[in-house]
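Minutes, project check-in

Agenda point 3 was the complex the collaborators sent over. CS summarized: two entities, 724 residues total, and the question is how they sit relative to each other. Sequences were read into the notes so everyone works from the same version.
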Amino acid sequence: MLKKIITLIIIQFSFPSTLIAKELNVFACEPEWKSLVEEIGGEKVKAISATHAKQDPHYIRARPSLISKIRRADLIFCSGAGLEVGWMPILIQKAKAEVQPGSIGYLMASKYTPIIDIPKSIDRGHGDIHPEGNPHVHLDPNNIPIIAKELYRRLVIIDPINKSYYNSRYNNFISRWDKSLLEWEKEIQDIKGKNIVIHHKSFDYMFYWMGLNEVAALEIKPGIPPTAAHLNDILQTVNKDTVDLIVVSPYDPPKGATWLSNKTKIPFVILPYTIGGNEESNNLFALFDSSIKILQDALYYK
Amino acid sequence: MYIYKIIASFILTLFVFTKFVVADELEDRVKELEEKIAKMESSDGNNSLSTSTKTKIYGNEFNPSIGIILNGKYNNFSMKSAEPAVKGFVIGHEGERGREGLQLGESELNFSSNIDDKFYGSMTAAIVKEDGEDKVELEEAYLMTTPNFNFPDGMSLKAGKAFWTLGYMNEHHVHADDFANRPLPYRVYLNKSWNDEGAEITYTLPTDYYAEIGAGMFRGDDYPIKGGDGESVGAMSAFARIGGDIDQDQNWRMGLYYVDGDNSGGRAGNDGDNTFKGDSSLYVTDFRYSYAPTGNVREQELTLQGEFFARNEDGTYDDIVFNGTSYGWYAQSVYKFNSRWRGGLRYSQMETAGVPTGLIGTNMDGEGFDPTSIAIMTDWTNSEFSRVRWQINQDKLASGSTDNQFTVQYIISIGAHGAHKF
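CS then shared the predicted structure for the full assembly.
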């Protein structure tokens, strides 16, 4: 063990890390950013995601393996806007100077997109709110090209040798995305104006884009889990005629939603939320394909 | 809205005339700007879409983050007379069971901020009631180098007063603990926690799994040493620890830690009896495993945690030559049933060192008795910022003495949203 550690230290000091690194190490906080970086970086990047679809990205632990991963990262790619505030500050202390906040290697997607749900007043009495606004920016498909462009710009600066490689993959991605976006825009026309009950404000960007209305949330307040009393209150205000669907993410506990659905006969669905959120959603295109299909099936053909 | 267009066209004109910027890039920018304007115009009225997040009110921007921890409790002890000393050990004030009845615990005030690009600073003060008086105890006051400091990647220096790297629990503030009190080895060897004055350097290795090593030097004026002469380095430390994932929902960490120091000034217990002078070496090993059955630690989580301590003292107790090794350990498991409720069980035990004839009959004489403590707790967490805990302890600290304790405790956190250490 000791020998191994000493050898590793010697290796570290003998070679600058750029000589050993064959591919760019990307530390993505969420699966959607890992997927986007793979779309543009291809085989020139080695991306990991700190969270998976079953985890609530607000609340993970700064576990040991994440320290070793962020320690070697050449690019940190996250949602920002306070989503990772419970664990990122501890991890970032162990990362390189090149990926510290404000540097090229530190990319927060929400800095480049329009932000919704910015609270007018900030008080913890309103729950665990994000003063910066809603961080779940990847769920508006219009945001993806904006973020992809910034990511492409950063990749070229960090790894200029592969500029033409990134360029062709970026252009290819954008043209495919634009094409899909046109199709999606057509598909969501059918479900516009429907009323939805959510668990947490995870889907605001998607619903805003789709023209769906959020009428109630199962969480008492953001970050404060539902109670039986609160669910009973919701039961008084919603019924089959006023609400079309209950939507939760793969990491929300389904208990409250199932209960409300049984009582009211309002259908309830789990939207994938991110890559890996269901079997179909294995990339960003499939994530939107699958989300739209689930909503269409539940709302349009209802 | 039109002001944006005017500005955009002004910038465009300027750049065209100066012929300075590549046309492509400019077009992109104008397009982006126009898209944004279009978006803002289309979103007028029924929603809160806004691009105004980037404007901030300056003035308080450079104030440090401020966090406040308040905690209060009610203690009920079955043993109404004074708590017996932990048989075979001489312990400090913080290691005792505390007061009975309704009371305020430690009220903590924390300020922290980046100092500049190369340093981070933090201070935590606790206001506590001791002997009927409110006292301010400085828990932490340190600076730490940021990764922008010109150390090799992964290296960091911390200097000042801090909860130094030793075992699992020492680095954590008491309010983050899973139980209302600390296990026996922490109470006996560390007087609850080790936060001496000094400096520590750590290095995270660039390996696939987590591996970190570190070493420090300290004044030697706090448990486990205490009573350093203050002239030279009173204590030294070293540690190594590793960790990793078993799969995406299970992870582990383990470490080895060592602190050694010489105290010519003498370390007396809270009651002033049996003063130790000499060399104390403390060896600690810790292990922690956590498992999230659904993947989401917010909903359900199981943690198993244990630490083993061995202390060798080579010197004198009350001028009687003493060389002995004692041991202490604890093991605990906490299970989170759902997002609000957790339950936990902890067992801790001490094993005393044999004493020379001169110390027979004193507090240091364990008489072959091993002090134990059992704790059972359940707690309710409303949000990340508030928690209420119920705990039952059974302490058997001396032969024939059983103290059943009941505690209700609240812990709340106000202000800056501190990130949680693993």
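Noted in discussion: DSSP finds eleven helices and eight strands in chain A.
Follow-up: revisit at the next meeting once the mutant set is ready.
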